[in-house]
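Quick one: Bacillithiol system redox-active protein YtxJ from Neobacillus driksii, structure tokens please.
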Amino acid sequence: MLKKIDTLDQFEDLIKQEDKFFLLKHSLTCPISHAAYQEYEKYAGGDVSLPTYYLAVQEARPLSNQVAEKFEIKHESPQALLIKNGEAIWNASHWKITTKSLTTATNENL
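--- reply ---
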């Protein structure tokens, strides 16, 4: 199940509470981002053990910018990040966000 986050406080709570999770930065107006979101939904709806979160860039720009700064990963949208113990250990953007790539990242980083 996908859970939306909007604030830096919510993100910081996630870092504290979750050992490992996915975060998707999603644009509400981009067709590529829409396709990535659908792939992310498929992944989240499958038999996965990792929590899945997303933010809408247009609605949470300060949070999106802070995520890019914190992990020193250039902002892109769409962009998926696998976060483990407070560090981004994997990321992908645009057409590289697929159910298969998310599953592979999960399996390689258990």
